[in-house]
Amino acid sequence: MKDVQTGGCRCGATRYEITGSPVTQLMCFCSDCRAFTGSDAFAAYIVKQVDFSPTEGSPKFYATVARSGRAVKRYFCDTCGSSLWAQLEIGLVSVAGGSLDDVELFQPVRTNLADEAPAWARIPDNLEAG
Q1: CA–CA separation, 12 vs 34, rounded Å?
Q2: pLDDT, one tens digit for every residue, the chain (130 residues)
Q3: Residue 45 belongs to domain spanning
Q4: pTM score, two decimals?
Q5: Are residues 114 and 125 in contact, defined by beta-carbon separation less than 8 angstroms?
Q6: Measured at the alpha carbon of residue 15, what is the angle toward residues 74 and 84, in degrees to the nearest 5?
Q7: Domain-embedded: residue 42
């Protein structure tokens, strides 16, 4: 049996579970991720779509097109507004690391678009550039 990871929003209205291991974990500094989080980066715990299941709540989403030209749906709690995950057109889900019940599971290994980070961003030195 696979380990199951769980998470959700601040108020508890929206919950999800993940089976399987993350594909990768990264800090994304693109302008879309910064706007989604209201911070310098998005802590992306990336899993396969088949390993991700919403279990409670009715999150809202904002659909957009990423710089790559691919469709992205960015989900947030319809009650408290917490940023939760982004469903990527390529069959992956980018879960907000801070929304995991065990936030210590988020262990980023690389950055994404760090060249777009604002001057005040906190970019860890030990991450591979991506």
Answers
A1: 23
A2: 358 999 999 999 999 999 999 999 999 999 888 988 889 999 999 999 999 999 999 999 999 998 788 899 999 999 999 999 999 999 999 999 999 999 999 999 999 999 999 999 989 888 888 7
A3: 4-116
A4: 0.92
A5: no
A6: 25
A7: yes
